[in-house]
Specification:
five-stranded mixed sheet, four-stranded antiparallel sheet, 4 domains, alpha+beta, Glutaredoxin, 50% helix, Glycosyltransferase, 22 strands, 690 residues
């Protein structure tokens, strides 16, 4: 790479785009400058979509985009555009759907070729520079497509028009009269059990992704039905993930996914959204089981976020790369001699517990060759191993804890992976939700304070001209918020109210929900579009259906509308929630295992919801009551606080108007905006809830 050569990416904020700013390829950011140039020169567009922690994106850059031969073909025949999929998920969604449509598979880097007016006609993922192992080479493909464009452009344009019509038809999602099956949650449980890996935990074989929203659904289902299979799937998965190499035993936090079925060999990137969703799952597992294993794991995730992923202003960074010094995992792996030298007399105990081998303990995924380094992982829990070694449990834990600290200190001296320091509202919101849930479950004020600081940062920095924006980087706010930004942040605000009882969070949640209805709602076919009507006009306006790596915006919107309806009594929220259920019912009925967050939200909307009002003047007494309620797993509840210091609560939650505030603290259980006679203590409340 010629560091003196610069292209049009040099003024961008995205770390991913800046990684390519010195390529000899004349990259442009997504924008009118590139499209006008393509039109004027009658050249197709080579659109490359990726993200900063994508291993194969780095490989393709090293093989092709720094190569003068590739750059010559691209610069002469195409207008080349780079997109950070994390900054522009709306663009990525459209072209990934096209890739899935034509190839029945997808991934990143995503390599798309479009007409000058953005209509795609070719899609691939990673491409080597030259043909290799039945995979076509980039140079040959580009040359063939360039020749084809010059001789048969009209045919290409006609095919691209047909592809766009198909994508538009897919995105329209016509309203149906379907409703969810009566046994839909049981059906989902059965489907998940069919896919469940009963030996290793998780769903499917390999590669294996965390899918924490599946686990959250199963915990809620277990709460309602006491179905042991539901809890078994959760515990097997969470324990095996924590034991495996997919967990960073030295520094905390989870890697993106496991390339094998055992949670052993990860792709080493760390994503904020994985930390957030997994922290929620471990927190709720603790609430259900009271097993400190889950609480400790959640704390390890939060410690990682606080230490390595938190901006000075309170926002959370996006991700850390899998690579350092051009090698995936180099920062995280250890050779036998290193560990012996660092740990001294305690090395052998550590080596045995974490399955460290002198010859290395894993095979390289790409080459299949034995790697002389090791990925720490556990095959026996602390108690079992200590007993086997005839050492006291407490002493063993102390030795391992001190050993991990020593390794962490040494690891900090290594070249760190790239950290993507852009702050994204949707992923930050998931982290806020996780910190709020843990603050309540663990009675931990520090977690609550981190959630408050992050939310206040978004409220102060990322709302501009009345609209929520998606990305903050280096004091720049950019890109109008998408459905996930709105839905996830509204969710975060409702969780913050339940954590702090500061009415401003509810006020902002309602305000943003109304903006979301105005900007994203499909008046013709119902449901929420991904991008706002006042945002950039793309070739297709899509809707998100499935709960994938993170929940879909429509699923979380259903959760929010249900919650806000039960709080405010605003029937508009109820109507829109009902319409979301109706429009997606046919898809959910056909494959419920792909809609676990949707079904979690549906249960909030459809089942008995507990509105718990605490009214009184004694702050210490009120705090103790709240702490006691929060120590129980009651996912279908909201606590509302009414004191003589917050009379404005009646403006937002009208049914609290007739609740008196007296010296003696009273607890009211309300359902459907009607409250029972007050309870004098928490025990009476739990007897009523059951």
């Amino acid at each position: 790479m010629d560091k003196y050569h610069v292209n049009q990416l040099i003024n961008e904020k995205s770390p991913y785009l800046l990684l390519h700013a010195h390529n000899p390829v004349n990259w442009y950011p997504w924008g009118e400058t590139a499209f006008q140039k393509a039109t004027q020169e009658n050249k197709p567009i080579f659109l490359s979509i990726g993200y900063s922690t994508c291993h194969w994106c780095h490989v393709m850059e090293r093989e092709s985009f720094v190569d003068d031969e590739v750059a010559k073909v691209l610069n002469e025949n195409f207008i080349s555009i780079k997109v950070d999929r994390e900054e522009r998920p709306d663009i990525d969604n459209i072209y990934m759907n096209f890739c899935l449509m034509v190839n029945e598979s997808g991934g990143w880097p995503l390599s798309i070729i479009t007409t000058p007016d953005k209509k795609p006609f070719f899609a691939a993922t990673y491409l080597p520079k030259k043909s290799l192992y039945n995979r076509p080479g980039l140079i040959e493909l580009l040359q063939a497509i360039a020749l084809h464009w010059k001789s048969r452009a009209n045919e290409i344009i006609a095919d691209a028009d047909k592809a766009i019509e198909f994508l538009k038809k897919f995105a329209s999602q016509k309203e149906t009269k379907a409703s969810l099956m009566d046994n839909i949650t049981d059906c989902c449980l059965s489907k998940l059990y069919d896919f469940f890996d009963k030996d290793n935990g998780g769903f499917g074989e390999r590669p294996k992704f965390p899918s924490p929203h599946n686990l959250i659904f199963l915990l809620r289902h277990y709460k309602d039905t006491v179905n042991e299979n539901a809890l078994f799937m959760v515990e097997k998965t969470l324990k095996n993930m924590r034991f495996g190499g997919v967990f960073d035993h030295v520094g905390g936090g989870f890697h993106r996914y496991s390339t094998d079925s055992r949670w052993f060999l990860p792709h080493f990137e760390k994503m904020l959204y994985d930390q957030a969703m997994l922290a929620m799952a471990y927190t709720e597992a603790y609430e259900v089981t009271k097993d400190d294993f889950y609480k400790t794991t959640a704390a390890e995730i939060f410690n990682y976020i606080r230490r390595d992923m938190t901006d000075k202003d309170g926002g959370f960074y996006s991700a850390e790369d899998a690579e350092s010094e051009d090698e995936e995992g180099k920062f995280y792996i250890w050779n036998y001699e290193e560990i012996q030298k660092i740990l001294g007399e305690n090395a052998q105990l550590f080596v045995d517990f974490f399955n460290i081998k002198q010859e290395g303990n894993f095979f390289d995924e790409a080459t299949g060759e034995k790697n002389i380094s090791n990925i720490p992982h556990i095959t026996k829990d602390y108690a079992e191993f200590a007993k086997e070694k005839n050492i006291s449990f407490d002493l063993f834990k102390e030795i391992i804890s001190e050993s991990l600290k020593k390794l962490f200190v040494e690891r900090e001296k290594r070249v760190h992976p790239l950290k993507d320091t852009k702050i994204l509202v949707d992923w930050n919101s998931l982290a806020i939700v996780a910190f709020c849930k843990a603050a309540r479950a663990f009675n931990n004020d520090e977690y609550g304070n981190m959630a408050i600081k992050a939310a206040n940062f978004i409220l102060n920095a990322l709302i501009k001209d009345g609209f929520l924006h998606h990305r903050y980087k280096d004091n720049e706010v950019a890109i109008k918020g998408n459905i996930n930004d709105y839905a996830f942040f509204i969710w975060a605000l409702t969780e913050l109210y339940q954590t702090t009882f500061d009415i401003k969070y509810l006020e902002n949640a309602i305000k943003l929900q109304n903006i979301m209805l105005d900007e994203f709602w499909d008046d013709e076919n119902q449901g929420f579009f991904f991008n706002p009507k006042s945002g950039e006009e793309l070739i297709v306006r899509q809707k998100e259906l499935f709960d994938r790596a993170i929940p879909s915006g429509n699923s979380v919107a259903l959760l929010n509308l249900s919650f806000l309806y039960y709080l405010t009594g605003n029937t508009k929220f109820q109507e829109k929630a009902s319409e979301i259920i109706q429009i997606f019912s046919e898809d959910v009925n056909s494959q419920p295992q792909s809609f676990t967050m949707f079904l979690t939200a549906f249960k909030i909307f459809n089942d008995k919801f507990h509105e718990i009002i605490i009214a009184g003047k004694n702050k210490m007494e009120i705090s103790e009551i709240i702490r006691e309620i929060n120590s129980h797993y009651i996912p279908n509840k909201i606590i509302i606080l009414k004191t003589d210091e917050n009379p404005e609560i009646m403006d937002i939650i009208p049914f609290t108007e007739n609740i008196p505030v007296e010296n003696a603290t009273k607890i009211y259980l309300c359902q459907n905006f009607s409250c029972q006679l007050p309870k004098n203590n928490v025990k009476e409340l739990f007897e009523e809830i059951g």
